[in-house]
Design goal:
This protein is α/β, with parallel strands linked by helices. The chain has helices spanning 2-25, 117-125, 129-137, 150-161, 185-188, 203-216, 239-251, 263-272, 293-300, 308-314, 317-332, 352-363, 368-374, 377-382; strands at 37-41, 44-47, 52-54, 59-62, 65-69, 81-84, 88-92, 94-99, 140-145, 169-172, 176-177, 197-198, 221-225, 256-260, 276-278, 303-305, 336-337, 399-403, 416-421, 424-428. The strands form four sheets. A seven-stranded parallel beta sheet has the order 12-11-13-14-15-16-17. Strands 3-2-7-18-19-20 form a six-stranded mixed beta sheet, with no helix packed on it. A hairpin with a 4-residue loop joins strand 2 and strand 3. Bound molecules: zinc ion.
């Protein structure tokens, strides 16, 4: 009997050790923090918030921070590591303003079978290494999580901050504020009791819940206000509850962004005083902006994340064309557009979704340079993150070098040569 006990414990110990070894081997951990000086030479550098192209410009990076743009050869310290980026364009790392990091990637309409569940769980406990890898591989160095399991996404954000996990910087809204009969509870079956949503029934409860997630350290609040379409009615948040959510968030100095559906939903969230809008996804085709919405949005400085890459997957081409027209009207009116893909939703890949969104914004009438601003400096501004999104002295060295010239052909962003995150080279395709 004693021998059996020893064997059993031995077998369990081996399994635990194998599990731990596998866990650490597949975690995707960062290399050492950047030290010394890195000189990036030869690239056309897109400088400043306006992405002004400067050919053959040297960028110096010290301890993860940009210390010089346009350094002369004599300024390069003799012990610097020189990286020749001739033939590439160097731009700030891309920012995806709308992701769901906990969602497994998949094709539209694909259901997760029981055989995929263990893999999904294993992925979640390792904080989705494949997702973090894919984002960086596509030059996405910052993401804004808009609807993930609250405790999980804050742990992921912390792991990346403290150097335990490699990955893009994470800004997180934590749980979605919505109604029990609303999206995403009844639409895609998000657990109403789970940590991914908050369902306040009264203004008092809303205030308590916002204070609680604010104390946990979220970067913003996301509300969902959607009545649904003719096919399925959804429950919106009551106006007094919505107002309490936004007012309490503002008390805590947190911006609020809103998922909206119909023109009435838009009116509700504007009345409540939100700071940002997600999607241009009216349950009709949004044949026109309601009233003088673009002017109101511009006046209030409300940023719009059109997420055209997710609606492209879901909607017929003619409807999608109308959504792009609405984006064009908003932008022409002076509106702030930022890039968000809704990656994690079926059919929208992490990283690749940002490249597609950039192309769709160019299809909507933005110049490639304006589209890139929406994925860099403009996005950083909306996230109140002054250290990222711009190539200038003192900014974080989150950088991406792509082959060719994305200012003439936006699809050049797909041809990633090198990616730096806080000065660490995390992707390197040099021959
Ligand atoms: Zn989303």
């Amino acid at each position: 009997v004693r021998r059996l006990v020893v064997y059993t414990f031995g077998a369990i110990a081996l399994l635990v050790a194998a599990g731990a070894a596998w866990y650490f081997a597949t975690l995707y951990r960062p290399g050492p923090a950047h030290t010394g000086t890195l000189a990036l030479t030869g690239a056309t550098v897109l400088v400043g918030p306006d992405l002004e192209p400067r050919p053959a410009t040297t960028v110096l990076v010290e301890r993860g921070v940009i210390t010089a743009v346009g350094a002369a050869e004599a300024d390069i310290p003799p012990d610097a590591t020189v990286v020749d980026l001739t033939g590439t364009t160097l731009l700030p790392g891309l920012i995806d303003m709308h992701v769901h990091l906990g969602a497994p990637e998949g094709e539209r309409g694909a259901e997760m079978g029981p055989l995929q569940v263990p893999g999904a769980v294993a992925d979640a406990v390792r904080f989705v290494p494949g997702t973090r890898r894919a984002l960086l591989a596509h030059g996405v160095t910052t993401v804004r999580s808009l609807g993930d399991d609250h405790a999980w996404v804050l742990q992921l954000r912390e792991g990346i901050r403290d150097g335990t996990l490699e990955g893009p910087r994470v800004f997180a809204a934590g749980p979605l504020f919505t109604a029990p009969g609303g999206h995403p509870v009844v639409t895609i079956g998000v657990d109403p009791q789970g940590d991914g949503v908050r369902l306040p029934a009264t203004p008092d409860e809303a205030r308590r819940m916002v204070h609680a997630v604010a104390a946990d350290g979220v970067d913003l609040i996301k509300v969902v206000q959607e009545r649904g379409g003719r096919k399925r009615r959804l429950e919106p948040i009551a106006p007094d509850v919505l107002t309490a959510i936004v007012a309490t968030a503002h008390e805590r100095d947190l911006p609020v962004t809103a998922h909206w559906g119909s023109p009435q939903d838009l009116a509700d969230v504007l009345a409540a005083g939100v700071d940002g809008l997600e999607h241009v996804e009216s349950r009709g085709a949004l044949d026109r902006w309601p009233g003088d919405a673009p002017r109101v949005l511009v006046e209030r400085g409300i940023a719009l994340t059109p997420t055209l890459s997710v609606t492209e997957v879901a909607l017929p081409p003619d409807v999608h064309r109308r959504l792009r027209q609405r984006v064009a009207e908003f932008y022409t009116a002076g509106g702030h557009v930022v890039v968000g893909s809704d990656a994690g939703m079926p059919g929208v890949p992490f990283g690749g979704g940002v490249h597609r969104e950039l192309e769709l914004l160019v299809d909507s009438g933005l110049t490639p340079r304006e589209a890139l601003e929406a994925a860099t400096s403009a996005a950083a501004q909306v996230m109140r993150a002054p250290d990222i999104g711009v190539i200038a002295h003192g900014h974080a060295a989150d950088l991406v070098a792509v082959r060719g010239d994305p200012l003439t052909d936006i699809s050049a962003v797909r041809d990633v040569e090198m990616v730096l995150r806080d000065g660490r080279i995390v992707v390197d395709h040099r021959q």
